[in-house]
Specification:
By secondary structure, the chain is of the alpha/beta class. It is 36% helix and 16% strand. The chain contains 14 helices and 15 strands. The chain has an 11-stranded mixed beta sheet with strand order 1-3-2-6-8-7-14-15-11-9-10, with helices on both faces.
Length: 454
């Protein structure tokens, strides 16, 4: 019999509804797994007593016929960048080591309103600034497949927790691939939804937003369950004002057209290429049309860095000057480089963002989705300089951002929904991720297509 901690959210929800598993048992199983796998260092804060109290209340509500929603009694975790009422939220930083928000972020509030029970806050690099989940405040979070390789970032703790059964579902955030990168490294599913589909009011610039809150899970069905809970308009979000367009779904017998973006100006690991090509061949065997597309995404890296470094400088520059000893050294470097940018540079980055959006829209007039690797290689070894360069397939490939995940950050800028899903394994056992990108507000259609792959 499958252990309770290894049940998916869909399975667990069904078991709770039929009283085969109680919310108390579900929470205790997740907490026990967290204790058993504390070597992975996936959590910043564990709110065990609060979770136990809420589980007892959920069990009483179930007995009284007052279950609150589709996630009733299901434990979940939240990346420590996202505010949680009454539970410490550190941003992965010593500066906020004792910060306790007074309100939940919108996504957290919606999860709790649907009956989910918060069990803890997962690790993140300081302010989510790099793709490796490590930092001075908490150390390093380990990849559950092989600890010699990174779990990715910046939602590394969330992906590790889900992969290891420390709760079936988690909320991550994604400012340049931060849900999809660790999802690929840990062999789970991660969705960056359409801009505005899941409100993220913590972003300091809501009009130029490129940071998202979204689901991480072990199955596409669980991602769908979470998205249905999380998605919806919010009057305070400039991209979430109007009702979402009528959701396109796969009709019976409909087979999508897939534009395959195998390379985007980067060097690609042969094992990743083989896994993605094999998945596309299976798609063709199912009757889908797969044709190659061309798009230079690597060239967008300097402009993405302009946004990233300028934002971090604006948010943290004064604090970095007054409390440098409390910062991750790589974050200090990132902030400092941002001082060289001008207002013209920022406008040029906006121009490039607009051009990229137009290029992707043009492709999506011909295809239902774009498929690509999530990452150019499987998980990288631990201990690398996140600001340094890497080799891929025996060649000098460039910076980690431009060489390892050029497929992810452009879609933060353009707002298109993007999903990372497992599509095989390297010879050393590390997972390989496939990314699917869809049209704005066709998130559910994107999930339908992912589900076709089985």
């Amino acid at each position: 019999m499958t252990a309770i901690a290894d049940l998916t959210a869909v399975e667990l929800a069904a078991a709770i509804r039929t009283r085969a598993v109680s919310p108390v048992e579900a929470v205790e199983a997740a907490l026990a797994r967290i204790e058993d796998r504390k070597d992975l260092n996936a959590f910043m804060t564990i709110c065990a007593e609060r979770a136990r109290m809420e589980a007892k209340s959920a069990e009483t509500a179930l007995r009284d016929g007052a279950a609150s929603g589709p996630l009733h009694g299901i434990p979940f975790s939240v990346k420590d960048l996202t505010n949680t009422e009454g539970v410490r939220t550190t941003q992965g930083s010593a500066l906020f080591a004792d910060h306790v928000p007074t309100v939940d972020a919108v996504a957290v509030a919606r999860m709790r309103a649907a009956g989910a029970i918060l069990i803890g806050k997962t690790t993140t690099p300081e302010f989510g600034h790099k793709p490796f989940t490590e930092g001075p405040l908490f150390g390093r979070t380990l990849n559950p497949v092989n600890p010699a390789f990174t779990c990715g970032g910046s939602s590394g703790g969330a992906a590790v927790a889900v992969a290891a059964g420390m709760g079936p579902i988690a909320l991550g955030t994604d400012g340049g691939g931060s849900i999809r990168i660790p999802a690929a490294c840990c062999g789970v599913f991660g969705l960056k939804a359409t801009l505005g589909a899941i409100p993220n009011l913590q972003a300091p610039d809501l009009f130029g937003a490129n940071s998202y809150v979204g689901p991480i899970a072990r199955t596409i069905s669980d991602v769908r369950m979470m998205f249905d809970v999380l998605a919806g308009t919010d009057f305070r979000d400039p991209y979430g004002q109007a009702g979402l367009p009528s959701a396109r779904r796969i009709r019976k017998g409909e087979l999508p057209r897939i534009g395959l973006l195998l390379r985007c100006g980067n060097i690609l690991d042969p094992e990743v290429e083989a896994a993605v090509v094999a998945t596309m061949r299976r798609a063709e065997m199912l009757g889908m049309v797969v044709e190659p597309v061309e798009l230079d995404l690597v060239g967008l890296e300097p402009h993405f860095l302009t946004f990233l470094r300028s934002l971090l400088l604006a948010r943290l520059g004064p604090l970095a000057e007054s409390h440098p000893h409390k910062f991750d050294p790589t974050l200090l470097v990132t902030i400092d480089v941002g001082r060289a940018y001008s207002a013209s540079n920022l406008c040029e980055a906006q121009f490039a963002r607009t051009v990229c959006f137009g290029s992707i829209q043009a492709i999506l007039t011909q295809f239902d989705v774009i498929a690509s690797p999530t990452l150019s290689t499987p998980a990288l070894p631990v201990g690398l300089d996140p600001l340094g360069k890497i080799r891929i397939a025996g060649q000098e490939a460039g910076t980690i951002r431009g060489a390892w995940y050029p497929y992810t950050y452009p879609f933060n800028l353009t707002g298109h929904p993007a999903l990372s899903m497992p599509c095989g394994f390297a010879a050393n056992g590390l997972p390989i991720g496939l990314q699917l990108v869809g049209r704005w507000h066709e998130d559910r259609f994107l999930l339908d297509i992912a589900e076709l792959f089985g």
